[in-house]
Amino acid sequence: MSVRKPLIAGNWKMNLNHLEAIALVQKMAFALNDKDFDRAEVAVLPPFTDLRSVQTLVDGDKLRIVYGAQDLSPHDAGAYTGEISGVMLAKLGCTFVTVGHSERRQYHREDDDLVNAKVLAALRHSLTPILCVGEGLEVRQAGGHIAHSLGQLDGALRKVTAEQAKSIVVAYEPVWAIGTGEVATPDDAQEVCGALRQRLAELYDPEVASAVRILYGGSVKSANIAGIMAQPDVDGALVGGASIDAGEFVKICRFSD
Ligand code: PEP
User: Fold this and answer.
1) What's the mean pLDDT in 149-157?
2) Dmax over Cα atoms in the chain, in whole Å?
3) How far apart are CA 215 and CA 6, in angstroms?
4) Which residues form the active site (predicted)?
5) Residue 101 C-alpha to ligand 1 middle, in angstroms?
6) Which of 21, 45, 109, 195 could link 50 by a cystine bridge, Cβ 3.0 to 4.6 Å?
7) Which parts are annotated binding residues for substrate?
8) What separation in Å is there between the alpha carbon of 193 and the centre of ligand 1?
9) Among 82-86, 154-158, 179-183, 195-199, which is the least confidently predicted range?
10) What atom in ligand 1 is closest to the CA of residue 219?
11) Which ipTM value was assigned to this complex?
12) Catalytic residues
């Protein structure tokens, strides 16, 4: 039996200012009955500008919701205008940081080398990377989805030790399912998540493979979360659009509609 605690992480993308962030986290914590809720670890990933406000609320009200950022620089400090480092995120009490999200790969041309450098930067500062991998529609239609996702995993984990690898989270996010309403079937999600776990066993060992949490992401909603969570190699969800609706996100955290 798996000892992996499910993780539901909300990627707010570029939505909500710091006041709206406070309102959303308050609503979410209330609806979740935060102090007693134990079914999953719940994380929010707001824009950088909201993090300090979310930190103050979470610390002040002793909420169990954890938080993180949507990206980080591969560098720790220096002349990198516009960048935010892992040092800064750690200081703000972040637990997680997404790395290699398909929107970063697509709009900012992030390749496997940069994703790898960001994974290493996160680990240097004890942040847990949520490493996103997943294929586009053409690759899926050509049947290359598993090879593509495994290739991204291999590329992102170069120079990551077994001890470090145990702590990371991997998110399988087929690009054709992100923000499209086109959710992968539970079997599709299991197929790739299972293959990713198998690859972790090959790259490291079975202990690492069974420790790593693997999430599914792509148009997750309260209506489809139960089927996804029933898969043996799916340990949670990375939720985009539905994560900025407190009622819907809380239902997802409860695995129900
Ligand atoms: C995401 O942004 O990681 C995501 C999965 O988005 P959505 O749930 O909106 O498809």
Assistant:
1) 98
2) 51
3) 9
4) 101, 173
5) 10
6) 21
7) 11-13, 179, 219, 240-241
8) 17
9) 179-183
10) 10
11) 0.98
12) 101, 173
pLDDT at residue 181 tops 80: yes
- Gyration radius from the chain CA atoms: 17
| Ligand 1 atom at shortest distance from the alpha carbon of 237 | 5
Each domain of the chain, given as residue ranges in start order, spans 38-253
Question: pLDDT digit string (tens) for 187-244?
Answer: 999 999 999 999 999 999 999 999 999 999 999 999 999 999 999 999 999 999 999 9
CA of 140 to the centre of ligand 1 (A): 18
The closest-lying atom of ligand 1 relative to the alpha carbon of residue 132 is 3
Q: What is the mean pLDDT of residues 123-133?
A: 98
The CA–CA distances, whole Å, from 220 to 30, 91, 174, 215, 233 equal 22, 31, 12, 11, 16
Q: What is the mean pLDDT of residues 98-120?
A: 97
Q: How confident is the model at residue 1 (pLDDT cuts 50, 70, 90)?
A: very low
Q: Mean pLDDT score of the chain, rounded to an integer? A: 96
Name the closest-CA residue to atom 8, ligand 1.
240
pTM (global) more than 0.80: yes
The residue count for the chain: 257
Q: What residue ranges line ligand 1, CB within 6 angstroms? A: 11, 13, 173, 178-179, 217-220, 238-242
- Domain 38-253 belongs to what topology? TIM Barrel (3.20.20)
